[in-house]
């Protein structure tokens, strides 16, 4: 290993504290790979949880691998020495299994870069069992649609890893991984576990336009793989075990409060693939906070909507009593109380974020955000009254059925927020700032908008340009935006089939040049995000059973066109509308 990289690796390890790593002589060697930088990977609670699950097993020797830092890549080109494990600096070819933890579609290209860089053929068909490591993949992005990475993976984990991963490891124990016969035996032993997807056993037929016409499944494999989810979160502690100042979140202990959201926002893939909504008990969270405080006084509560947590006010007060400085991953305007804001203000927060997502009542009904202007303005008022005068507002642009008036209403809403902020600033004798974050809408598989078209790059730029130009005239409003180019690449990847692997390889071969690779792509990927899907079209991701029935998703899509709202999940988890909660009666449209 190059000296400069070796020094960097040792420095990084020395800066970590918390759970300790131990080498296991003779164990199955697993490299847990986060296909992005160390700073991002170590801020990812899912990645940390899987590392803990693997690292605590006596028969597993697990090390972490990250995408090399951009500066190192630029300086050292594609040298194999860049691709090594963090703990021992080993080459990736020395591991039995490479297990990728993937949260975002735009990281798919890094999977190819890492495999190629490490001297491992990215495509499954070019690898040899015994000579090359087995490649596993899991994470939220590929639980929504695993097909874009299906040609790279030997085994894909669909859903939450907490339960399936230990079961797969049990089946692996004592097995040899030396050749294709061993792999077949391993696949036979594992393929009946719910959530285990072996893509080699699924074969797709396409029509001349590239749409899926049929899926043929090898004998012995399930026709559809059911998503796995943890019923009782208290049995699955999810907290960050290793801290370091070298991450995005800087020495903060992350603790998962809940999983799944019952609000039915139609754009939100996480809201569908993490159903049903589940809450960790307050006793377990407080236990985790107490343990976390041994490492740091900074506690981050992670959840789909932390302000929806039952009894959040009293709960935050208890955490504050323990001496923690608290942060939260998400707040909803309609469940924001003064005492929750007070706890955040007392923890030193100078800015809070809200996500109205849509600027007008009409578009918020289309996406089922379930929030009026008055609720949003009232929430902003509560934040400013607490003394926090800076606010960040997230909006999406390019939503289905969006019209010019929706963007005009967005501008008007921000102006009204500013009026309330100015009044609060006068009382406080200070000036605050509003940050408007504009994000391109990307339709996702396994959501009601899986049928919808995405806006083209020019339309997205025009819409964001209008909002920026109009709000620029106002003082103390900063408008930031994501880049339509990357949103469109995400749009290509999020609903594509396994043939996209050739495009990803071509991008990696072109040094990351998407424009050139798309120009030479003969499979129509460049146009795919902008096509409205036929009502009855068979989707590549339907090898996966996400839990929500197709007829329910389609009904939600039709309701969105009409701006018709859907009520949130009831507390008893037995409404039967979407199909996730087993044992429920037939769907009740009146709910
Ligand atoms: S079945 Fe009903 S309660 Fe259960 S996740 Fe679906 S909508 Fe929510």
Characterization of the model:
- The chain is of the alpha/beta class and 591 residues long.
- It contains 20 helices and 21 strands.
- It has a six-stranded mixed beta sheet with strand order 3-2-4-5-6-7. Strands 17-18-19-20 form a four-stranded parallel beta sheet. A three-stranded parallel beta sheet has the order 12-15-16.
- Strand 5, helix 6 and strand 6 form a beta-alpha-beta unit.
- The chain is globular and about 70 Å long.
- The protein starts with a helix and ends in a 29-residue tail after the last helix.
- It binds iron/sulfur cluster.
- The site of iron/sulfur cluster (SF4) has 13 residues, from loops.
Looking at the structure, what is the overall shape? globular
| Small ligands present | iron/sulfur cluster
Gyration radius (Cα, Å) is: 24 Å
Largest β sheet strand count, sense and barrel closure:
6 strands, mixed
């Amino acid at each position: 290993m190059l000296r400069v990289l070796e020094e960097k690796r040792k420095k990084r390890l020395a800066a970590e504290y918390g759970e300790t790593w131990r080498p296991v002589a003779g164990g199955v060697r697993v490299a847990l790979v986060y296909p992005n930088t160390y700073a991002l990977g170590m801020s990812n609670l899912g990645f940390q949880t899987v590392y803990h699950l693997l690292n605590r097993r006596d028969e597993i020797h697990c090390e972490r691998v990250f995408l090399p830092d951009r500066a190192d890549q630029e300086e050292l080109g594609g040298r194999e020495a860049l691709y090594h494990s963090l703990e021992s600096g080993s080459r990736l070819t020395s591991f039995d299994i490479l297990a990728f933890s993937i949260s975002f579609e735009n990281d798919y290209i890094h999977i190819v870069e890492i495999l190629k860089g490490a001297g491992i053929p990215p495509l499954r068909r070019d690898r040899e069992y015994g000579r090359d490591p087995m490649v596993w993949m899991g994470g939220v992005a590929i639980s929504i649609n695993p097909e874009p990475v299906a040609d790279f993976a030997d085994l894909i984990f669909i859903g939450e890893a907490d339960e399936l991963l230990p079961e797969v490891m049990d089946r692996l124990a004592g097995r040899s991984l030396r050749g294709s016969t061993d792999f077949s035996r391993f696949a036979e032993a594992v393929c009946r576990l719910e959530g285990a997807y072996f893509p080699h056993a699924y074969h797709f037929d396409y029509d001349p336009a590239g749409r899926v016409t049929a899926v043929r499944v090898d004998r012995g494999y399930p026709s559809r793989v059911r998503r796995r989810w943890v019923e009782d979160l208290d049995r699955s502690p999810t907290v960050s075990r290793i801290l370091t100042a070298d991450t995005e979140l800087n020495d903060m202990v992350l603790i998962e409060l809940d999983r799944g959201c019952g609000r039915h926002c139609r754009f939100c893939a996480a809201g569908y693939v993490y159903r049903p909504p589940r809450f960790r008990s307050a006793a377990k969270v407080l236990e985790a906070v107490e343990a976390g405080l041994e490492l740091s006084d900074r506690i981050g509560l992670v959840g789909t909507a932390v302000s929806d947590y039952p009894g959040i006010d009293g709960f935050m007060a208890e955490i504050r009593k323990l001496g923690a400085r608290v942060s939260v991953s998400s707040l909803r305007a309609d469940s924001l109380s003064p005492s929750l804001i007070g706890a955040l203000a007392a923890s030193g927060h100078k800015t809070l974020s809200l996500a109205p997502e849509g600027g007008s009542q009409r578009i918020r009904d289309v996406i089922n955000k379930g929030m009026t202007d008055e609720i949003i303005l009232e929430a902003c008022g509560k934040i400013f009254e607490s003394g926090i005068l800076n606010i960040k507002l997230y909006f999406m642009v390019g939503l289905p059925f969006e019209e010019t008036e929706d963007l005009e209403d967005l501008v008007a809403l921000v102006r009204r927020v500013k009026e309330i902020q100015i009044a609060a600033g006068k009382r406080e004798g200070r000036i605050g700032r509003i940050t408007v974050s504009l994000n391109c809408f990307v339709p996702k598989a396994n959501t009601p908008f899986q049928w919808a078209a995405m806006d083209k790059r020019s339309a997205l730029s025009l819409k964001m340009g209008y909002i920026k130009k109009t709000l620029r005239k106002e003082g103390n409003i900063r408008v930031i935006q994501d880049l339509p180019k990357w949103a469109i690449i995400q749009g290509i990847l999020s609903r594509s089939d396994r043939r996209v692997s050739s495009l990803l390889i071509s991008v990696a071969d072109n040094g990351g040049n998407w424009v050139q690779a798309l120009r030479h792509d003969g499979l129509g990927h460049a146009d795919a995000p902008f096509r409205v899907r036929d009502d009855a079209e068979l989707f590549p991701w339907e090898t996966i059973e996400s839990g929500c029935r197709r007829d329910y998703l389609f009904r939600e899509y039709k309701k969105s066109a009409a701006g018709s709202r859907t009520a949130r999940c009831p507390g008893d988890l037995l409404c039967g509308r979407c199909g996730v909660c087993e044992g429920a009666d037939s769907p009740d449209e009146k709910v």
